[in-house]
Specification:
Elements: E1 2-5, H1 10-24, E2 30-33, H2 50-65, E3 69-72, H3 85-98, E4 102-106, H4 120-133, H5 144-148, E5 158-162, E6 169-172, H6 177-186, H7 188-191, H8 197-212, E7 221-228
Parallel strand pairs: 1-2, 1-4, 2-3, 4-5
Antiparallel strand pairs: 5-7, 6-7
Helix pairs in contact: 1-2, 1-6, 2-6, 3-4, 6-8
Length: 230
């Protein structure tokens, strides 16, 4: 499995419980971040230290979910992310290296019910990932130099999309919810000010999704739009 997101903490907010469940099921998960999220944090944050801080936090957060392979792409500025050819090429390189059957990405389509989930960097990361998955990763002529690096074309079977305007699938995360909370607590530069409110907010979100998809009372869930590429 490959998870592609714009910033540290994005995939933990959107899919932390689901990712933990995949790990528990014995699946190998790689988390790929397009930026270091250096614009995050608050006014008293050390801006020069922020990239390193957020990288350490993401490694710790992913560790709480059981993910050991965390990667950051070089050369992309937080807040300025675009679905450029270079970003697409970098994602293709990771796709061919990891060879995932399933890729979890952010939505390239804006949702207007909660605009925070449609941060411009999220949209750019989603668009670049979609383009990288199809057709570029499958096309040996897209970047011929990757063939010379022994990175052969790779076909992805499923795309899971976070924060899509039309969610089609829910995942019960009740049993992995505590690890989702721990992962987001590890992003202390972003969530430390929330205290106990962080878990309360996450529980409210999870309860709302579970109710929307008809899960039993007391269950918690995350939701996605799933594309089957065959």
């Amino acid at each position: 499995m490959l998870v592609v997101a714009a910033h540290p903490d994005d995939c933990d907010f959107g899919a932390g419980g689901t990712i933990a469940g995949w790990v528990d099921a014995g699946l190998s998960v790689t988390v790929l971040l397009c930026t270091h999220g250096e614009q995050g944090g608050f006014d008293d944050a050390n801006r020069e230290q922020m990239p390193a801080i957020r990288e350490r936090e993401q490694v710790a957060a992913s560790g709480a979910l059981g993910v050991k392979d965390v990667r950051f792409l070089p050369g992309h500025r937080d807040g300025w992310l675009e679905p450029s050819w270079e970003l697409q090429r970098q994602i293709v390189e990771v796709l061919r290296d990891v060879q995932p059957q399933r890729v979890l990405i952010q939505s390239p389509e804006r949702g207007y019910d909660r605009v925070q989930a449609s941060h411009p960097d999220h949209l750019a990361a989603g668009e670049a990932a979609i383009r990288a998955i199809y057709p570029a990763s499958e096309n040996r002529y897209a970047w011929p130099e990757l063939i010379e690096q022994a990175l052969e074309p790779w076909h992805v079977n499923e795309i899971w999309i976070m924060a899509h305007p039309e969610m089609t699938h829910s995942v019960d995360i009740t049993d992995t919810f505590a690890r989702k909370v721990a992962a987001l607590q590890a992003h202390a530069s972003q969530t430390g000010h929330m205290g106990d409110q962080l878990e309360k907010l996450l529980r409210e979100w999870g309860t709302g999704v579970a109710q929307l998809f008809g899960l039993a009372q007391g269950r918690l869930a995350e939701c996605f739009h799933i594309m089957d590429l065959g």
